[in-house]
Amino acid sequence: MAQFGVPVYVRHEIVHNRHVVQTLRDQGAIFVDELDQVPLGAVTIFSAHGVTREVEDQASDRHLRVLDATCPLVSKVHHHGRHYAAKGHQLILIGEPGHPEVIGILGQVDTPITLIQTVEQVQALTFATDTPLAYLTQTTLSVDDTRHVIAALTQRYPHIIGPSSRDICYAVQNRQQAVRELCTQVDRLLVVGSANSANAVTLRKLASDSGTPSYLVADGSEVDIRWFTPHMTVGISAGASTPEASVQDVIAALARIAPLHIQTLAGREERVQFQPPLGLIARQ
Q1: How far is the C-alpha of 213 from the C-alpha of 174, rounded, in Å?
Q2: pLDDT (tens digit, 9 = 90+) per residue, 102-114?
Q3: Active site residue 96
């Protein structure tokens, strides 16, 4: 907003985190569901989840000044899909129906894509065993669940090709591994993130599946004193799009319940850096 002035329009939530969205609203961003709500020629941001080609065409028709904030890892899935389709493969996408990232992937490849989510759905596929097949994966899924589905696909269709779990977002993978390790050391786990964040929901589910009672909280206001007992060890993790301020707010809420001894566990260092959208680069 500092570069372009206000208002700046954002199609859908730029990331699935209500505090990030509210911060942008407070700075003058206007969030819309569809591009027909955006004035002709206005500055418009596409969310990190990516959009369909139809949306891109609508933006062009309305002469919008687009800043495409699609995550490069999501763009990589789009590229893989177009590559496999050009080679004559029929495509299978492992993902969540209705998720914005999945909608974008389905609309970025000029060939039908079969969407599945579970091992049971693999067994229901009707492709002949000799059909040239390739699979794609939504970037924010559980690595474990995706691995099981890929294994089922490979067993049923030995010649299927795909990028394996490497296309799961590295930040998501790192957090999932950290939660597994953390659950061996704590009595309760708090995951800081929004309820519509697929990767934050997955972290809470991983903890619960491990036997550790876990709760998803957006910030400190959602922390409930009834979840805890004296001298309990509480772990905190966060979704990939959760701002640090939300994590600190949860820690402050816990400190109001009881004195804290805080220990930070070593995790995998993330050094990956992405370039900002091209429209921003041009103005720097």
Answers
A1: 21
A2: 999 999 998 999 9
A3: no
